[in-house]
Inverse folding.
């Protein structure tokens, strides 16, 4: 099924738009992490606040190094923007270490960010780049499982992250559902198991589970190797919709359509994997 959802409403010029926050790593190549989030947030018409958790040395062929921001500086960025600017929803991406994860969980708790709180939280448990380069210390997986995922309104792992977090290798619909149950059991309100890495399929299906019902979001598979930043683009579109007060299933439907269009608009860059691109939204605006 392909979901036909209306675009998010845009704020008239000169009026303050809805604000969102991403807590994640930077990508010097501009394809993933905070750069991907910021592109989608801008194209969704929301104002993006940013808490940098790590700086990666990255291009289209891989990540050669990263630098972690001190945990209190990460939390300080979150506190500074939430108490002044105010946000409608937040997302986490690359957090690198146990110390940063714990610091982010603590400041989110302090500020009312998380499941059953005022501000919804999407947790993308980023653990490695698409090239297989690590973005999270292995020792920090436990902190994700026991500290951050239980605070998530929605957790959005790809299949590699599902395997690391739950030990389940997803190979089909049945194993994807079992994995979604395991992630929900860790305490997330909703678990979204992303199926982009099941490359045998002619479609790409993400499975959403809320503890009682499974919803499937399917799109045709786009044949491209320029899929860098796909997970971030999906997550930031979901967060933009959540900030507008949409329900989680509606926000996921919107995000799925958004990332599919962005995969179709992806482009070659450098010698490796190019980025998915939400710039199609500019052409939509031209056509309107
Ligand atoms: N080739 C593709 N065609 C269509 N959708 C895709 C494709 N690759 C990934 N997706 C979708 O993009 C989103 C990101 O998925 P995935 O690649 O699994 O995560 P990540 O980018 O975090 O590794 C999901 O909604 C997934 O279904
Ligand atoms: C800073 C940062 N955050 C996230 C990703 C994951 O994105 P991808 O799976 O497309 O490599 C990344 N490569 N870099």
């Amino acid at each position: 099924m392909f979901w036909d959802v209306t675009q998010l409403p845009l704020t008239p010029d000169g009026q303050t738009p809805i604000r969102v926050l991403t807590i994640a790593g930077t990508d010097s190549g501009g394809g993933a992490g905070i750069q991907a989030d910021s592109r989608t947030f801008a194209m969704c018409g929301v104002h993006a606040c940013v808490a940098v958790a790590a700086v990666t040395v990255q291009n289209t062929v891989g990540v050669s190094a990263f630098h972690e921001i001190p945990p209190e500086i990460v939390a300080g960025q979150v506190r500074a923007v939430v108490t002044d600017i105010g946000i409608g929803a937040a997302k986490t991406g690359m957090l690198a270490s146990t110390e940063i994860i714990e610091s982010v969980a603590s400041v989110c708790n302090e500020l009312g960010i998380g499941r059953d709180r005022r501000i919804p939280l999407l947790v993308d448990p980023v653990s490695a780049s698409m090239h297989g380069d690590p973005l999270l210390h292995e020792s920090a997986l436990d902190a994700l499982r026991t500290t951050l995922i239980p605070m998530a309104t929605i957790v959005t792992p790809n299949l590699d992250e599902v395997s690391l977090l739950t030990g389940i290798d997803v190979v089909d619909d049945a194993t994807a559902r079992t994995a979604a149950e395991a992630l929900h059991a860790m305490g997330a309100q909703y678990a979204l198991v992303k199926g982009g890495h099941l490359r045998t399929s002619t479609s790409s299906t993400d499975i959403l589970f809320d503890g009682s019902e499974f919803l499937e979001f399917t799109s045709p598979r786009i044949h491209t190797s320029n899929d860098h930043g796909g997970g971030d683009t999906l997550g930031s579109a979901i967060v933009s919709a959540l900030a507008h007060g949409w329900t989680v299933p509606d926000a996921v439907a919107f995000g799925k359509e958004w990332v599919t269009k962005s995969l179709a608009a992806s482009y070659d860059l450098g010698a490796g994997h190019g980025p998915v691109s939400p710039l199609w939204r500019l052409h939509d605006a031209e056509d309107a």
In short: Residues 24-27, 32-33, 56, 58, 93-94, 126, 129-130, 135, 228-232 surround MP5 (ligand 2) (CB under 6 Å).
